[in-house]
C-alpha cells in the first residue's frame, strides 16, 4: 500500500477515472443551487441529481468528482469518534445510463488493489452486498475475492422516496485485531456494530430501479437507463493510507491541531480523550465554517446560518476547555486554506473575508457568553428565592440554544450552587429543535422519475438570440410518454429544429407567444418553455389547431413581454456591479428572477442594507442607464471569458462555449440570457424593497421603465396626501411641517406624563391611608386609576420608600385589560410571604396569570370585573398564612 498525501489521494482517484473516459466535474458550492430539497450539499451525487433523474442529459455520461459535503445530523458525535465529521470530501464515479455493475466493480477493485494505483492488499478487503443481488456476489468472486470476504446485508439497498434506487455493495478495509480488542471479528460487519477495525472505504450504488413507495420493492420497474453512483470518503481513505489511528491524525487535520496546540499551550494526545475531543471539534468545525462561509453562507438564527452559528459556538466553548479565552478560530482560516490549496484555491483567495466573518461572530459570541452567564446567575437566584432545587430542562436548553452554553457547563455551575438539573426536559427540548432543523432540510422528494421518451429525443434544436419570430420545423409532439405524429387539441410539449423562444434559465423567465401556419393561422399558444433533458427548448403549448410532425410553422414571441424581461435582466447586471461597489465584493449573487414587471436579486451580505447605501446603489444604477452604455454580447470559450474579467456565478455549470455580457468597463458577466442593446433602453430603475430572506442572504426587489415611473408617481401622490394633512402648501415644506408636529406631540406627551404622575401621586395619598391589619400583617389592597403597569410600579416605589405597610396589592384597568402588582416588605418576606405566590393566587380572578420575585410580582388579565374579588382574596390569602 502506497504512502501518499491527501492531495495525492484525491488526484489519483480522479486521474484513474479520467483514464477510464470520465469527465471531472468540479466541486460545487456547499450551498445548493436551484435545489430547495437540500439545506447543504451532503454527498457527491447531490449536485448530479439532474442527470440521474433524466431532467438533463450530460455531455459525457461518465463523470467523476471530489465533492465537498456537509452533514449536520451527527454534530454531537464529532470529536467523540474516530471518523465523524461535519464537512468532508466525497470522491465518486458516476455512470448516467452508460456502464453498469461489471465495469463499476471491476474498476473499483482495480483502483484499490493494482500496484499502479493504491495497491491495497486484497486480503485486507471485505465487501458487503444485498442478499438478493447474486450478480454482485458473482462479480466479486470472478475478480478473485474469497467467498468468506463477502457478507450479505439486508440494508444494502439505496432508495430515498420515489425515483432511482437499487442495491449497493460496500468495501471495507480490515485494520487488524489491534482495533478489535474483544476479538469479535466479522460479526462487527454482519451485525453493523460500531467499530474501528473495519473501516468503510467505498460504497457502490447500482441504481437500476424506479422506486415506488406504493408497491413492494420486488415489483419496482427497471430504469430505462441504469446508473452508477459511488462514494469514497477522502478522510477515511487518507487515514488508512497514512496509517493514522483516526481521521484526525492525517495531513487534513494535524496542521490545524498543531496551531491549536500553540495557541492553547496544551498538547494533543491521541489516546487522551479528555483533551483530544476539543482539538478534534475545533479542527473539524473550523474547516466546515471556512468552506461554508467561503461559499456564501453566514452565521445566523435559522437554517444554514443556525448550523454555522452552532458550529462556531461549539468550537469556541471547546477552545475555552483548552484555556483559550480570546477569539482564535479566525486565525485558523489561513491554515485550512493552505491544506486544501491544491484543489480549492478559492479558500486562500477569500481567506481575509472568511476570517473577518468568523472574527465578527466570535466577538459577538464572547459578548453573548457574558450575557448567558448573567442569565444563569439570575435563574439560580430565582430558584433560590422560590425554594426550588432543580434547574428546568427548557431553561438549560435556552442557555444552550441561545447562548451556546454546553449542557455540561450549566450542570457544573448549577451543582456548585447546590442545584440538580433536569436531564429529561433538556432532551425533550433538544429533540424538538432537531425536528425543527430537519424541517428545513427536505421540502420535496430526492429525485424525479426519469422520462424515457424525452431522454431519448436527441434531435438538434437551435435557439436564435437575434430573432423574435422565425419559421421552424416541428420535430417532436410529446404528450406524456407518447411521441405523436399529429395532434389537434389539448396540451403538448413541442420541439422545433430552431426557435426564437427563450427557455427559462439563469433567473430569466420563459418567453410566451404563438405558433402559426405560414399563412398566419393560429395553431397553438406557447405558455412555457423549459430545457429538455438533451438541452432542446421544450415548448409547452395549448393547441387550438392541427399540428403535424415534420411541418414548418411560424414561431412568434410576445415581443412586449420579452422587451420588459430584457430591461429587468440588463438592470440586474447593473445592480450586481453596484452592490459590489457600495457593499463590497462579498455581495455576490445568490439567486435572481427577471420577470415582466419586476426583478428580484438575492445576494450574500451580513447585515441590513442601510437607506443611505440603497440610495447610493439606486443612484449608481441610474447613472449607468443615463450614460447610454452599449451592451455587447460575445460568445467565446470559458478561459477567454475569464481573461476578459467575466464574473462566473459559483455553482453554475458552463459549457465549452459561453456568452459574455459586457456593459462598458462597468460590468462583465457570464450570462445566457437576453439583453437590451444599450442601457438607455432601460429608462429608469427604482428599488422598492430590501429584506433579509435567510442567514447572510438579502433580497432586493426593483422595477424598471414604466413600473419604475409608476413607483415614483405613487410615492409622490402619497407625499401630496401627507402635505394636505399637515397643511403644507408646497411639497418641500412637508418635512418641516412633520418635524414641527413631532415636536408638538413630544411636548404634549411630556405634559400628559406629568399630569398622569400628578394624578398618581394624588391617588397615592388616599390609597396609602387605607391600611388594614390581617393576621398581624399590614396590607394595602386597592384599585387605582392609572394608565399602565409603569405607573403601578411608580406607586410601589413610593410605598417602599415610606414603608407604609407589609404588603401592597394594586390593580388598574384600561381598555378591558387588567394590570396587577404585588409587593412584599422585608418583614413580610421573613414571615415566608412571597409576592410571586400571592400574584399567582389572585391573577385567576381577573382572567390572567403572572409571576415574579419574592419582593415584587406582577400579572395581567382580561376581566376587569374580577378586580374587587381579587383584592378581597389577597386579604383572605394572608389570613391563611
Automatic annotation (TrEMBL):
EC number of the protein: 6.1.1.7
Major enzyme class: ligase
Residue ranges occupied by any Alanyl-transfer RNA synthetases family profile domain in the UniProt entry: 4-714
Alphabetized Pfam families for the sequence: DHHA1, tRNA-synt_2c, tRNA_SAD
Amino-acid positions noted as binding Zn(2+) in the UniProt annotation, renumbered to this chain: 569, 573, 671, 675
Regions annotated as coiled coil: 731-765
Main location: cytoplasm
Keyword Nucleotide-binding: yes
Co-factor(s): Zn(2+)
SUPFAM superfamilies: Class II aaRS and biotin synthetases, Putative anticodon-binding domain of alanyl-tRNA synthetase (AlaRS), ThrRS/AlaRS common domain, Translation proteins
Cofactor binding: number and manner: Binds 1 zinc ion per subunit.
Transmembrane intervals: none
Catalytic activity line of the entry: tRNA(Ala) + L-alanine + ATP = L-alanyl-tRNA(Ala) + AMP + diphosphate
UniProt-annotated location(s): Cytoplasm
Biological processes, Gene Ontology terms: alanyl-tRNA aminoacylation
CDD domains linked to this entry: AlaRS_core
GO molecular function: alanine-tRNA ligase activity; aminoacyl-tRNA deacylase activity; ATP binding; catalytic activity, acting on a protein; transferase activity; tRNA binding; zinc ion binding
Function: Catalyzes the attachment of alanine to tRNA(Ala) in a two-step reaction: alanine is first activated by ATP to form Ala-AMP and then transferred to the acceptor end of tRNA(Ala). Also edits incorrectly charged Ser-tRNA(Ala) and Gly-tRNA(Ala) via its editing domain.
Entry note about domains: Consists of three domains; the N-terminal catalytic domain, the editing domain and the C-terminal C-Ala domain. The editing domain removes incorrectly charged amino acids, while the C-Ala domain, along with tRNA(Ala), serves as a bridge to cooperatively bring together the editing and aminoacylation centers thus stimulating deacylation of misacylated tRNAs.
Record-given protein name: Alanine--tRNA ligase
